[in-house]
């Protein structure tokens, strides 16, 4: 039976992207070169409410690649996979392919 985690409020579930230690041609990369903290959004909550009760939606959607802070988030393990829960405002930005 597969477990599925649905975030509450303005939280997002992210699977961190592990940067490769070497290029496709076999060149080893220094540890500092691959330190971009990014992740793929797996699930999003419905959003939070303002003081009038209006829904403020989450700014990212499932499938987005996001830039994450170096520290923070709550680690969650589901089966063999490791995820992190972040608040929407903790996400530093989204990454887009040109």
From TrEMBL:
Keywords on record: Chaperone
Gene3D superfamilies: GroES chaperonin
Entries under SMART domains matching the protein: Cpn10
Domain of life: Eukaryota
InterPro entries linked: Chaperonin_GroES (IPR020818), Chaperonin_GroES_sf (IPR037124), Chaprnonin_Cpn10_CS (IPR018369), GroES-like_sf (IPR011032)
Family designation: Belongs to the GroES chaperonin family.
Name of this chain's protein: 10 kDa chaperonin
Organism from which the protein derives: Brassica cretica (Mustard)
Source organism phylogeny: Eukaryota, Viridiplantae, Streptophyta, Embryophyta, Tracheophyta
């Amino acid at each position: 039976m597969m477990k599925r985690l649905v975030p509450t409020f303005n939280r997002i579930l992210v699977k961190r992207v592990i940067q490769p230690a070497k290029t496709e041609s076999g060149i080893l990369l220094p540890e500092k070169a691959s330190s971009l903290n990014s992740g793929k959004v797996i699930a999003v909550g419905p959003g939070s409410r303002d003081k009038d009760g209006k829904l403020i939606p989450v700014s990212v959607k499932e499938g987005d690649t996001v830039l994450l802070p170096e520290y923070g988030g709550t680690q969650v393990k589901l089966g063999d996979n490791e995820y992190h829960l972040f608040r929407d405002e903790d996400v530093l930005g989204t990454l887009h392919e040109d």
